[in-house]
């Protein structure tokens, strides 16, 4: 597994939402809008990661929506305070965890394996809300390609996919809803070849498409940026604004 997936910086702040369920999935929920919903698809740090919850709070406020951040790892999450979860000067790393068999973990939690749970959550929201958008990061971005496909029958109104794993050409060609991609310059999973494939294929699909390129930053920056570094901080703010704009532009 790439280091950029399992290392990053923890942001200060206390999430203000609450935990409940969406269908059968435990979820962190922020906001209380009864017409607009956003489904957040977490990265490998899981649904309890402080930064992702702070982002949920931010989107709920700035977009005016109820944001759902479900658990898609079957109860597993990176827990702050665990002996293997190093935290030094705000930087965290979980790659040294001796208790996680990473190949087995990713086999169990492969996007295609967890997709039925993700689809079930999206369907629950679709039945309740007038607008349903999604944003996925890293692992969640990979699932996002599949959730935005034709076979899901328009469960979403739009999606933002941020620094995903390498998508298959089939997943890219299957996109059927307005799609925004957030692409850092340095990314061992969303490679230059993957970027080129998306920018070659998606404009031919007849859907709205925006590609946002972020020079100088790395995979994972949307959820684990170093806010003490000016370029990373500015890139994160630009990415947050892009996500907000995409939702607001498709709310009708």
TrEMBL record:
Domain spans labelled Dienelactone hydrolase: 27-249
Gene3D superfamilies per the UniProt record, alphabetical: alpha/beta hydrolase
Pfam family, one: DLH
Molecular function terms, GO-annotated: hydrolase activity
InterPro entries: AB_hydrolase_fold, Dienelactn_hydro
Domain of life of the native organism: Eukaryota
Protein name as catalogued: Dienelactone hydrolase domain-containing protein
Species whose genome carries this gene: Saxophila tyrrhenica
């Amino acid at each position: 597994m790439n280091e950029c997936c399992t290392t990053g910086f923890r942001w200060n702040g206390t999430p203000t939402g609450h935990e409940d369920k969406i269908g059968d999935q435990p979820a962190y929920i922020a906001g209380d809008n009864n017409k607009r919903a956003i489904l957040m698809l977490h990265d490998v740090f899981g649904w309890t990661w402080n930064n992702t919850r702070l982002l949920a709070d931010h989107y709920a406020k700035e977009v005016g929506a109820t944001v759902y951040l479900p658990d898609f790892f079957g109860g597993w999450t990176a827990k702050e305070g665990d002996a293997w979860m190093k935290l030094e000067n705000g930087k965290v790393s979980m790659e040294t965890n001796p208790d996680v068999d990473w190949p087995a973990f990713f086999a169990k939690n492969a996007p295609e394996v967890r997709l039925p749970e993700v689809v079930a959550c999206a369907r629950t929201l679709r039945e309740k809300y007038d607008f349903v958008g999604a944003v996925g990061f890293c692992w969640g971005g990979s699932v996002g390609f599949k959730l935005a496909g034709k076979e899901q029958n328009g469960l979403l109104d739009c999606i933002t996919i941020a620094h995903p794993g390498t998508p298959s050409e089939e997943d890219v060609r299957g996109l059927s809803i307005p799609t925004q991609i957030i692409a850092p310059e340095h990314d061992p999973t969303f490679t230059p070849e993957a970027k080129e494939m998306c920018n070659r294929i998606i404009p031919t699909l007849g859907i709205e498409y925006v590609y946002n390129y972020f020079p100088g930053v790395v995979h994972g920056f949307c959820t684990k940026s170093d806010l003490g570094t000016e370029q990373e901080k500015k890139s994160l703010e630009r990415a947050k604004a892009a996500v907000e704009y995409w939702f607001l532009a498709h709310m009708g």
